[in-house]
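Thread: Newbie trying to understand structure tokens

Hi all, I'm a second-year student working on a class project, and my supervisor (Dr. K.) asked me to get a predicted structure for one chain before our next meeting. I've only ever worked with sequences, so writing a 3D structure as a token string is new to me. If someone could post the tokens and maybe explain what I'm looking at, I'd be very grateful. Here's the chain:
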Amino acid sequence: MKLTRVMNVLLHEMMPPAIGKVIALVRSGEHCVWSGDYWSWADAVSDSTGYDSDVIVERVTAAALKVKCGDAAYERDGVLFDEIEYSWPMLAGLMWVAARNGGRLDVVDFGGALGTSFYQNRGFLAPLAHVRWRVIEQPRFVEVGRRLFADDERLRFHPNFDSCPTVDGETLLLSSVLQYLEQPYAIVAAAARRCRYLLLDLTPVHDGPNDHLTVQTVPPSIYPARYPCWLFSEAKLLSQLESGFEVVAAFDSHFSPDVRAGATRARYRGYLLERRKAL
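---
Reply by user tm_fold:
Sure, no problem. This is what the structure looks like when written as tokens:
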């Protein structure tokens, strides 16, 4: 299977589209709940529920427009915040990549909704000589993104990797994404052949030897949904990453609630990686 085919298939495995990768928090203090330890993705899917994607898209669009227009500071998963909640390690990773590339930053934001991470960091990205931020998303988000948010100079939206040309020094951003893919390690292997840099953030890991497949329940105040979610063995994840990349830095993510599923205790971590020169 061709590289782009692999990555396009993985895109459509995301569940639910874009906003489903909630870590989100509402000011009321509600949190997501993780449950179960499933043998297969199909078993986890069978214990998940549907969601109204139109409702999700509408909610996120309304919130993102407020951020774009300056009426709100920040949004995540359609929830508005009075202050930007920076992921300082992720931002440091982006600026490190830009510094190594003469002030140029080319990001492929896999599952990036309507540009949440771009708008989160745009104040710091503005002085760079060149920024091209390309969001890979499912069709409904791409349509809204192109119509209401796209900036031909910086922010663009694509339905798949085929429509997103590869450039030298490209960075693949996976922020709260990897855990929602049926085959998460396939995208790691594919990324090593496409991208020079890989930046993970908000990825749940634990200290045990094996990955655990759970079902994550979203607080109804955000939207009603249940969907499969991996809790990764950090040792296994790093082993997979290091087969194609060298780890530049590992860090605790800025958002670190307890993630508990039975006896498994996980935490959110991030990693900045550079492709091995032999590949």
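A couple of things are worth pointing out once you decode it. The radius of gyration is 17 Å. The domain at 3-16+33-49+86-275 is CATH 3.40.50.150 (Rossmann fold). Feel free to ask follow-ups in this thread.
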